[in-house]
């Protein structure tokens, strides 16, 4: 697993810019991004649990679960606005 960094590798913008860029995607794509982030955090939690880092793993599992809930909300928002979106 890669070492945790304090920046997004390969991205030179600020975290604010990154958040705005993700937030400006269509809701289905934002939901997909959130799912991928949740999956990665859950994978890290699995690794931490295997290493005996129970408290860290539990917090990471909690964070992943909240992200999955956020993904579900974004998917619901997409279903509302999808009929009004222009086809690319």
Alpha-carbon distance between the termini?
Answer: 37 Å
Based on Cα principal axes, name the global outline.
flat
Mean pLDDT: 94
- Category by helix and strand content: mainly alpha
H/I helix tally:
3
Order of helices and strands: HHH
Number of strands: 0
Estimated share of beta-strand residues: under 5%
Q: pLDDT under 50 segments (min length 5)? A: none
Q: Helical amount among residues, as a percent range?
A: 55-70%
Instruction: Report the sheet with the most strands, covering strand number, pairing sense and barrel closure.
Output: none
* Integer-rounded radius of gyration: 16 Å
Question: How do you describe this structure in short?
Answer:
With about 90 residues, the protein is mainly alpha-helical. It has 3 helices and no strands.
Describe this structure in words.
By secondary structure, the protein is mainly alpha-helical. It has a domain at 25-82. Helix content is 69%, strand content 0%. It has 3 helices and no strands. Helix 2 (27-50) runs antiparallel to helix 3. It is flat, with a radius of gyration of 16 Å. The N and C termini lie far apart (37 Å).
Fold topology:
Blueprint: H1 15-23, H2 27-50, H3 54-81
Helix pairs in contact: 2-3
Descriptive key words:
single chain, mainly alpha, 88 residues, flat
């Amino acid at each position: 697993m890669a070492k945790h960094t304090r920046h997004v590798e390969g991205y030179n913008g600020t975290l604010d810019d990154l958040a705005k860029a993700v937030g400006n995607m269509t809701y289905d794509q934002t939901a997909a991004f959130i799912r991928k982030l949740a999956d990665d955090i859950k994978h890290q939690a699995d690794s931490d649990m295997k290493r005996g880092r129970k408290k860290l793993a539990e917090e990471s599992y909690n964070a992943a679960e909240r992200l999955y809930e956020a993904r579900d909300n974004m998917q619901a928002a997409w279903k509302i606005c999808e009929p009004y979106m222009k086809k690319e």
